[in-house]
Each structure stands twice: as structure tokens, then as C-alpha cells.
Amino acid sequence: MIVLKSQREIDAMKKAGEILASCHKEIAKMIKPGITTWEIDEFVDDYLLKHNATPQQKGYKGYKYATCASINDEVCHGFPRKEPLKEGDIVTIDMVVNYNGGLADSAWSYAVGNVSKETEHLLMVTKEALYKGIEQAVPGNRIGDIGHAIQTYVEGEGLSVVRDFIGHGIGAVIHEKPDVPHYGLPGKGPRIKEGMVFTIEPMVNIGMYQTKMDSNGWTARTIDGEYSAQYEHTIAITKNGPIILTEQEK
Fold first, then answer.
1. How would you label 88-101 residue by residue, b for 16+ Cβ within 10 Å and e otherwise?
2. Which of 8, 29, 102, 228 has its CB 3.0 to 4.6 Å from that of 75, i.e. a possible disulfide?
3. What are phi and psi of 197, to 5 degrees?
């Protein structure tokens, strides 16, 4: 069942989103060769505490960390670690913030120092794909319109869209309906309505779209070892279109 949110609930999620976005802006200043994702995770834990918020994914199904930190060929759910990031790496930091019961979810991919032209293209296309998906998130459209816009753009740029992991509704808990695939056919899926709140979070690969799981049972990586990137926003649907609750451009 898709739960439509009240304005009060959306306002609470917006406050969580503002904290999350400001945290990502601080992380962006930290990314450089030599830093570890362990240090970033500790920073996030401390930052949220100082802002009277908590990392919602810590303890979720036994997950131990405030963030997911996925490096290079890791598609999602990478564990923070003490291995330093290197020049030319990319890292995706994903987190869910709880502020007074309001949740917000956002992932962002970062270049570590100078990266290759191929990697620059991956990051650019993935970020652009997110916003092309958001453009379709208007009342009266269908969820499939979002995925179709993303898939068409990404594949037109010679890259591939991950199928195994998708966007999702969010509210009282991290994952709600609707499911939001980043591929598919226009005019299919649930109708988009005012009051819906969900994530759009395309994961895009340089090579094949298939993924494989690490032995830890959490981390997914590309099947061919090519780089993967991800950008994610939490959005609320209003009668006038989508509002990005995790917007950093403020």
C-alpha cells in the first residue's frame, strides 16, 4: 500500500533532508586522496549527533554503520573501512537521517582527486539521470515514466542502469511502497499522486548492468569490475510537481 503523507509529515522529512544535505556538503570538502571512509562515517555520526539527528540505517537489519560507502566497482551498501581512498577513485556515500521521526535518504558520488575522462562522464550522466527522473515525478504521470526517462538517457550515453536495486517510498520507515525502478516503460506502474514521498536513486555502470553480492551479504558490485556511480534524492509530490527534500543547491 502507498501511504500518502500529510503536509506536517512532509515538513518533518524536509527538516531531516536539510540536515542530510548540509552533511553531504561537508563531506564534499573532506574527499581527497588519503582519507578513509571510516573517517567519513565517524564524521557523519558526530555531525548528526550535533544536529539532534540520528543515522537511521545504523541497526537496520543488523547494519553497523551510519553510512554506506561504496568505492569504484561497488554499486551500493559498501562498508566504511580504514583503507585510504586513492587518486582516481570514486566513492558513493549514502545515508538515511532521522530528525524527530522524519526520515530523508540521499546518496552522492564523489571523485577522489583527478579521475579519468570515462569516470567524469559516468558521474555527469548519473547525476543528470537523477534530475531527468525527477522531472517526470509529477501528479498524473506513472512511476514507469521516471524509469523510462532515466534508462533512455543513460543508455543513449553508452552506459547501463542497474536493475537489482531501485528507489522506494519512504516515511515512517526507510522502505515503503512504491517501488521506483530506474528502467522500464512509460505509462506503466502506479499513478503518481500528491502526497507521495519517495526516492529516485539511479545506479549507473560503465559496463554491464548486472551485479554480484560480496560474501558479507550487503555489498553489491558490478559483475565486470567496471566503475559504478549513484546519486539519490528524496522527493515529495505536490500539486505543482516534485519538491526535493534533500536538495544541496541552497
1. ebbbbbbbbbbbee
2. 228
3. -130, 125
Where is 41: in which H helix or E strand? Answer: helix 37-50
Q: Which fold has domain 7-244?
A: Creatine Amidinohydrolase (3.90.230)
Return the closest-CA partner of residue 230 out of 103, 68, 86, 114.
68
Which three cell numbers, joined as nine digits, stand for 60?
537496520
Report pLDDT digits (tens) over 27-57.
Answer: 999 999 999 999 999 999 999 999 999 999 9
**pTM for the structure as a whole:** 0.97
State the cell numbers at 29. 570538502
Q: Using CA atoms, how far apart are residues 215 and 169, in angstroms rounded to an integer?
A: 28
Comparing CA positions, the residue from 199, 202, 146, 152 lying closest to residue 177 is: 199
Cα angle value 120/130/91 (rounded, 5°): 45
Spell out the domain ranges in the chain: 7-244
Please report, rounded to a whole number, the percentage of residues in the chain having pLDDT higher than 70: 100
